[in-house]
Amino acid sequence: MNNANKVVARFADGTVLKGQTSDFFPNRPVFHVVKRDGTHGTEVRVEKLKALFFVKSLDGDAQRSGLRGFIDGPPENSRGRKLAVRFADGEFVCGYSLAYTPNRGAFFMYPADPNTNNERVFVVVGNGADVREGAAAEEMAQKIVGEAA
Question: Which is deepest, 31, 81, 83, 91, by most CB within 10 Å?
Answer without folding.
Answer: 83
